[in-house]
Write a structure and sequence with these properties.
The protein contains 10 helices and 4 strands. 56% of the residues lie in helices and 12% in strands. The protein has a 4-stranded mixed β-sheet with strand order 2-1-3-4. With 212 residues, the chain is an alpha+beta fold. This is Glutathione S-transferase kappa 1.
Length: 212
């Protein structure tokens, strides 16, 4: 057995439903595989802009496929993500920057809450189809994830600080440096080099590359 654990970084944004699927699968396997899983909250909008990518739903045929695909993936992976045509407008119409800054602040202050907090944002947005852009939405999510009101208050103050903004920007730029053009972007550091896997449908390939 290999003693050295493979560092696996998951670059994600809670506005991405496929990121949720990857997140849950990697959470399940992190103690089965010999990996050290690191969550890297980043901003999908920044990646799209920088690489000239477009949301999949902008292409009608792809949007049509995505509705079926998410349904199958949700069933297969047992993740309560649901999607309808209204979601395409919802994603484009609301900003998730605040949510990702809040998650980034948690990563800097209390990383142990990163997993439950991220999950609650996905549940609210992709399961309950509710807003995540407004302040009260962020407060509700923080409560669901078990954050104290003191901590939540501190994080809200941090959200607009240069430190948090820079950290989110740097993480997003790091994902782009690894070759990311969308989300989720999974980077496995194996045999001295980074291996990028895009999407939630490459996890068996990831396993194969790292010898699992």
């Amino acid at each position: 057995a290999r003693m050295v654990r493979t560092l696996v970084e998951l670059f994600y944004d809670v506005v991405s439903p496929y990121s949720w699927l990857s997140f849950e699968v990697l959470c399940r396997y992190q103690h089965i595989w010999n990996i050290d899983l690191r969550f890297r909250p980043a901003f999908l909008g920044g990646i799209m802009q920088s690489t000239g990518n477009k949301p999949p739903a902008m292409l009608p045929k792809r949007a049509e496929y995505m509705l079926k695909d998410i349904k199958r993936m949700a069933k297969y992976y047992q993740v309560p993500v649901t999607i309808s045509e209204d979601d395409f407008q919802r994603v484009l119409g609301k900003s998730n920057l605040g949510a990702m800054r809040f998650i980034t602040a948690v990563d800097m202050m209390q990383p142990k809450y990163l997993e439950p907090l991220s999950r609650e944002f996905w549940i609210r947005f992709w399961s309950q189809h509710e807003d995540i852009s407004q302040l009260d939405s962020i407060l509700a999510v923080a409560g669901q994830a078990g954050l104290s009101s003191e901590l939540t208050q501190k994080l809200l103050e941090m959200m607009s600080s240069p430190a948090v903004k820079n950290r989110l920007r740097e993480t997003t730029e790091e994902a782009i440096k690894y070759g990311a053009f969308g989300m989720p972007a999974v980077v496995a550091h194996f045999n001295g080099k980074p291996h990028l896997f895009f999407g939630s449908d490459r996890l068996e390939l990831l396993a194969s590359v790292i010898g699992e």
